[in-house]
Amino acid sequence: MQSAHEADPGPLSHRVPDLGGLQLLLAVARLGSLGRAARESGVSQPAASSRMRAMERQLGVALLERSPRGSRLTEAGTLVTDWARRIVEAAEGFDAGVQALRDRRDSRLSVAASMTIAEYLLPGWLIALRTARPGTAVSLLAGNSAAVAERVRTGEADLGFVEGIGLPTGLDGAVIGRDRLLVVAAPGHAWARRRGQVGAEEVAATPLILREQGSGTRQVLDDALAAHGGLAPPLLELSSTTAVKSAAVSGAGPSVLSELAVGEELSAGRLVEVPVADVRLGRELRAVWPRGARPTGPARELLTLTRGRPTSPRDASPRTGG
C-alpha cells in the first residue's frame, strides 16, 4: 500500500521522454552543440532548446551546461544519455522486428502460417531461407488455418502453411510433414494420475481448454471425436497455442495441443500426456498456394526447404507427399 509520504508517480509515459527528445539528446552528446544537433534533427535551434528544457523539467535534472562555446553534458546528463541510447537502440530493434510482420508492399515474399507452424517451425525455415537467399525480404501473417487459407485465396499471401484434415477449398498444396495432437493435463489433474487410458467418450464429454473454431487443432479434434458424441462446450476457448498451454500448465483443466508445442513442458514435468483409447489424433501439415499457380522464386525455395527439415520431435525427417 502507498504511504502518506509517497506521491503517485503517474503513468510511465508521463515520466519518460519521447523518442524524439532522446534522439535529440544523443545528437547533442555526439556533436557537442545544441545548434548542430538541431540542424541534424531538422528543427530550429530555439525549438531544440525549448525541447531540451522541457525534458529537463520532465526528468527533474539538468542535462546540459550551456555556454557561448556550445553545450556539454552534466554528470547527470551523461548518465541519462547512456540510458537514452539503450532505449533508442531497443526502439530501433522493435521497429525492425515489427517490420518483418507488416504486409509491406515491397516484400518479395509474403507468408501466412497457422499459429503452431508460425511459432515452432517457421523460424527455422526462414533462417534457412535467409542463408539460401540473403536478399529476400519476407513478411509474415499469422493466424488460424482457416484465416491462412483465406489469405492465400485472396492473394494476400504468396504461400501458406496450415494444419488440418484435408486441402482447403480452392487451393493447391503439398504435405510437408505430419504432427500428432496430445491430450495433456497438469500433474495434479485426475487424468494425469490415472492408470491406463482415458476413453474417447470421456474426453469428448469433458470441457477442455481448446483453440478457437477455424484452427487446425480444433478441426482435427472435432472430426476425431464426432463418432464419440462430439466435443462438449469448451472450458476455455483461446486464440493462441501459447495461451492454451499456459492455461493447462496452471491446472485450469486438460487440453489438446500439438506435440510440437509441449515437448519442453512434458520433459520438465509441467504437463503430463494423457493416453486416450479408441481415437487417433494425427494430422498433416501442408504448404498451400493459389490453385493453378505453382510457387516460384523465393516461395519455391521456401517450399523446398520445408521438405528437408524435421516437423515432428519423433521424426528425423518429415515424410512428404501431395
From TrEMBL:
<dbReference type="InterPro" id="IPR036390">
    <property type="entry name" value="WH_DNA-bd_sf"/>
</dbReference>
<dbReference type="Pfam" id="PF00126">
    <property type="entry name" value="HTH_1"/>
</dbReference>
<feature type="domain" description="HTH lysR-type">
    <location>
        <begin position="17"/>
        <end position="74"/>
    </location>
</feature>
<protein>
    <submittedName>
        <fullName>LysR family transcriptional regulator</fullName>
    </submittedName>
</protein>
<dbReference type="InterPro" id="IPR005119">
    <property type="entry name" value="LysR_subst-bd"/>
</dbReference>
<keyword id="KW-0238">DNA-binding</keyword>
<feature type="region of interest" description="Disordered">
    <location>
        <begin position="291"/>
        <end position="322"/>
    </location>
</feature>
<dbReference type="InterPro" id="IPR036388">
    <property type="entry name" value="WH-like_DNA-bd_sf"/>
</dbReference>
<dbReference type="InterPro" id="IPR000847">
    <property type="entry name" value="LysR_HTH_N"/>
</dbReference>
<dbReference type="Pfam" id="PF03466">
    <property type="entry name" value="LysR_substrate"/>
</dbReference>
<comment type="similarity">
    <text>Belongs to the LysR transcriptional regulatory family.</text>
</comment>
<dbReference type="GO" id="GO:0000976">
    <property type="term" value="F:transcription cis-regulatory region binding"/>
</dbReference>
<keyword id="KW-0805">Transcription regulation</keyword>
<dbReference type="GO" id="GO:0003700">
    <property type="term" value="F:DNA-binding transcription factor activity"/>
</dbReference>
<keyword id="KW-0804">Transcription</keyword>
